[in-house]
Amino acid sequence: MTKTIISVVGARPNFLKAAPLHREFLKNPSRIQSLIVHTGQHYDEAMSDVFFRDLELPKADFHLEAGSASHAVQTARVMMRFEEVVESARPDWVVVFGDVNSTLACALVCAKEHIPLAHVEAGLRSFDRQMPEEINRLLTDQVSDLLFVTEAAGVENLLREGIAQGRIHLSGNIMIDALMQHEAKADRSSVLSDLCVQPQTYFVMTLHRAGNVDSPDILRGLVRLIGGIGARRPLVFPVHPRTSRKLEEFGLLGELRSAPRVKLIEPLGYLDFLCLTKHASGVLSDSGGVQAETTYLNVPCLTLRQETEQPVTVERGTNTLARLDPEEVLRWVEAICEGKGKKTQPIPYWDGRTAERITEVLLKH
Ligand code: UD1
Ligand code: UDP
Prior knowledge:
Elements lengths: L2 E7 L2 H15 L5 E7 L6 H10 L7 E2 L7 H19 L3 E5 L3 H13 L3 E6 L9 H12 L2 E4 L2 H9 L7 E3 L3 H14 L3 H4 L8 E4 L3 H4 L2 H17 L2 E4 L2 H9 L3 H5 L4 E4 L4 H9 L3 E4 L2 H10 L3 E3 L8 H4 L3 E3 L4 H12 L16 H11 L1
The structure holds uridine-diphosphate-N-acetylglucosamine and uridine-5'-diphosphate (UDP).
């Protein structure tokens, strides 16, 4: 019997997590019909289409065109349109990824429609309920039938929240599958020469967390900090559209543009971003995905947040947490310039075979 499995993608990090699973599903054509639903949460060419090309994902089977809006409106739009999809496709499984609004919206629809639901990257917790992502994670996990977890701490979190052990599978980090599958292609990217930077001589920055960029005071502090880093080494900063909008709204774009050696660029495609990260002296970021990628690539990462939902990246990886304290951040930058970055140790199941393990479990159920 062929199972119909819908993978839901919507925002940039989802594409990277869905691609290896879709690739694995295609290896089992007699057993799995793999459908992709794009909610349209991210829609710019640089935030969506480029990932489909870079990751060799086929065009989505259903596009919900939800677009940007407040949390409630965006979530409601995805729910209304996804309900129609599941009513017509009647999938055997729906797979949702990560912690974005599209993840929770589709999870709620499945719960009400009694469609079996699998959550990839379940169990991660920042323990900060001010973060919209934390609410999305907590609620999605509560209504999921199968929970695929990236690291041991996630299993403990789920057990503490009363999730039955039999539903939890420590299967590893699917982003590492994507990275391993595309690293050779990323190595052929011309991004370093396009940006006129030499390997190991520059830093990379990404910023988009609402907690960092939605407040004018915090964002102003970050702009000053970026100037301070640029004074020491070139800094490449692909600017997320949320951040770009906030920089403009708060009148901070001029100051940032005039900072010496800071290269403000549009968001990069996956292969270019991977190549840029791999050859950086270090990365400063508030991204979830970047913490995992830098750990795998053994590139020092400073996470500009007080907590992380991926403690293994600090315990075994290259990740360091930082308050937004300029002195602390610049001390880290100096240490990296002197070659004193953390080194990665192997992490169980971050081996490129996560999609295989997830598929095996899905086929058994
Ligand atoms: C979302 C996720 C966040 C994730 C991030 C990855 C939620 C609550 N947040 O944050 O967890 O880490 O994606 O990048 O789901 N915009 C564009 N073009 C686009 C997409 C967005 O211009 O293609 C602008 C719009 O002005 C929009 C703003 O960015 O209002 C924010 O987009 P949204 O998807 O709501 O949240 P992100 O900050 O992208
Ligand atoms: N990324 C990219 N281009 C960029 C910035 C990020 O390709 O300019 C990739 C990177 O691989 C990262 C992923 O997008 O892991 C996820 O993005 P983001 O930081 O937006 O989301 P998060 O992981 O924080 O939810």
